[in-house]
């Protein structure tokens, strides 16, 4: 299908004042990265419109990002679950969980892991992939919808103790709108876990892997803090990277009825801009390109050797 494009203002401060960063991304798909000069949020502009993204997630996403998905897969408990470890490490692991919602759940591995801990809990998911939906349904996960932008929150009369949003916030076309929905279905003492790539500490080649057309936003600790304040969530703890993923920033938040004011600072913009420009300059240097190419060749040779041995 043909994809339609749209232009957007900054989702956090609504400014239309940005610096262009790159127009290249993973798989060669159109990826126009800019950074807001007012608040420092990085995002795609122009980008595919909402319908184009929905069609891509339902029909094309698995081909690019989940090529090995199996329709007869069953949900498996991971030996070590990063979310569980992080919640316990920060002393925020919930004691009683009746309902768990995973937004962008994929095949549901996080859900089944927490089900093994809270055995009486009920599992829910919002997941656009049709293949993943089949697996979820086969494992007693209630699917609230395929489109997080739809009014899924209007059709439920219960709230959640734990909402998981692992590497999904960066995919939204309107994070503010969706996070307000998330807040509306969170119990007063419930928590939301959010993890995203850390744009202050990118661990991959920007133009070849870090920038992706499915990542409409690129967050850091400053922009995450502002986002949560704007929607009425209080960040209890936020961490940048650990043994599970050094290029990640994650947080745990809960409802806050007080009016929290965001802080939009040019310093945050300058810090983010400097980091991205320095990394792009490094990646465009001849020594870096030669090293990057040699690593790819070595990985390819090792992969071919491994396949032949089988």
UniProtKB/TrEMBL annotation:
Keywords: Methyltransferase, Transferase. It holds the Pfam family Methyltransf_23. GO terms for biological process: methylation. Signal peptide: none annotated. GO terms for molecular function: methyltransferase activity. Transmembrane segments: none annotated. This is Methyltransferase domain-containing protein. It comes from Aquimarina amphilecti.
